[in-house]
Amino acid sequence: MTGALAGVVAGLLLTVRAGAAQQSTLLNPMFGDHAVLQRDQPLRVYGKASPGEQVSVSLGPVSGTARTDARGTWRVTLSAQGAGGPFMLTARAASGRAQSAQDVMIGDVFLCSGQSNMVMEVKYTANWAGEVRSSADNAIRMLTVPNAISNTPQDTFAGAVRWQVAGPGTVGDWSATCYYMARELRRSVPVPIGLVTSAWSGSNIRPWLSEQALRATGWYDDELDLLRFRTADPAQATHRWGARWEAWWRSQAGAGAGEPWALSSGSEGWRAAPDSLGAWETWGVPLLAEYNGMLWYRTTVRLSATQAAQAATVSLGIIDEVDQSWLNGEPIGYTSDWTTPRHYAVPAGRLRAGDNVIVINALDSYGAGGLVGPPSSRALRLANGETILLSGWQWRPVPGSAGWPPRAPWEATGGLTTIANAMIAPMGRFVFRAAVWYQGESNVGEPERYQRQLAALMADWRAVFTEGMPFLVVQLANYGHATMRPVESGWAGVREAQRLAVQADGRSGLAVAVDIGDRYDIHPTNKQEVGRRLARVARRVVYGEVIAPSGPVPTGARRVADAVVVSFGDAEGELVSYSAEGPIGFELCGAGRDSCRFAAARLDGTTVRLAAGTGEAVRVRYCWADSPVCTLYDRAGLPAGPFEVPVP
């Protein structure tokens, strides 16, 4: 082979298509085959090369150059382009190394995030087979970010990512809410639409925020300091967190609950568990048949002096969903995930000759709970290879006064900044047209914080991606037991926080979903309507179309003689009530916590008149429950969402 030919071959080997081989990081994986880039805004393209190396980038008619910094990071800003394509995006380093992405389109790109109702795939929605069969559309593409967490911001994804084109072979696994929104938008916005789904089932809003944004709230400094400490010393951080958990238990559970993890806790209150364990709902214990909350477990393993002298691993299998675990009264581990087997390292010197006691506090917030792995997954594994199965488990109920335990800052779905570090930070400074946020179910235990947290998320992501980026927020759907009288509701509290955050923001919109949920399923299957409502919100908030974004919204309430009159805006035509002459679900409330009462309502154009009589009325609430029945709509069939407004 001649030197010239060898050079050509070497050059060809260095040219790697981004969608086919992500081990090459010249282009950030966001810029892969079939990608969609944001139209009408300067295009930020970036990646990695050798420190100090010059990189040239071309995309259709535009090009630019940059030099990498000391970390090997390069960034090029290309001139804004109108919708179009396909193009080839190429980055070429001075060394001759090159990487290309083919079939790149320019259009509008949406970041879709949240928890399980955003994750829920098309194949689990109503009429999914027909939806998949008719899904072919070269102008809709999606990239799905794999689940991962990190204590610190990352610049690469934990796993491979790739853009996919909509069609029967791909759409079934896509986020249904995100896809149905894009499909509906294409009817009025005839440009390519890119969708980046970064979502995690069961996730709280906290792990989606950066450390800077969380510190700005003033609520989490101690936990964030502990998260930083864990990066340097994981074992000591685990011990410190266990001490915090124990302090919480002592303050919440009451003196009669004792310290179940302690070696001196005794046998009182402990009951024998089934040999195979499994979900506690299957044990035949009435107390646990539909129980969501915490449960204690413990077992004892006897060791010889030789066995006890070794290092070991305590394996507990899969626990649904959160565990705090102890060995001989000392914390050994904490995990929050219903898919991850627990394996907790025990250094030499921690075991003892004779009885060793393992204690677990398991928390389950939804569905099946407990030690659900097979019996063989629960074992003490000694350093010499010996395995001792853990059996003879006991369980103990938790007092109702205990409430919900604190969540470790490094956990996946309930921690602090962990998901943002691994699933948002690696996107770099990608340009998005808007963000879509469908989350809140995991925050119903602390609704009083959610408005501020959501506002912080909006500011946080705008600072990273696109200044002024609109947010399209799905308000929580109805779920849970119906009520026969006014009640306090964490679900209603989060809905109100979502409404107020959007109202205060000015660059966001709310898609109401309280009438299309499922009282018996936290994951309603009618995601097509959620997508349609999001598309309508986008037409108003993102594209400036003069339409009501998502049903009637309250503009104020006032006392008029023996009535309270609530005014509404953003209604298409007059207000209407379904299945009755007047809408139901309105409450008049006094100043006290338990002072709300249902009020008869009568429609008058775009106002609702509530019979108040002579009773105290300082607040009006509408559809204030976990799973309310809401019957107030406008002529376009759009619902009024839940709210609480003052009566001056």
How does this structure look, described?
20% of the residues lie in helices and 31% in strands. The protein contains 12 helices and 35 strands. Strand 29 (586-589) and strand 30 form a beta hairpin. Helix 4 crosses helix 12, helix 5 runs antiparallel to helix 10 (450-464) and helix 6 runs antiparallel to helix 7 (234-252).
What would the keywords be for this entry?
12 helices; disordered N terminus; twelve-stranded mixed β-sheet; 648 residues; alpha+beta; Jelly Rolls; six-stranded antiparallel β-sheet
Contiguous uncertain segments of 5+ residues = 1-23
Question: How would you sum up the global shape?
Answer: globular
Level-1 CATH class name of the domain at 236-402: Mainly Beta
Share in helix? 10-25%
| Beta-strand share of residues | 25-35%
User: What does the radius of gyration come to?
Assistant: 28 Å
Main sheet overview: 12 strands, mixed
Could you give the count of β-strands?
35
Instruction: Please state the second-level CATH architecture of the domain at 236-402.
Output: Sandwich
- The total count of helices amounts to 12
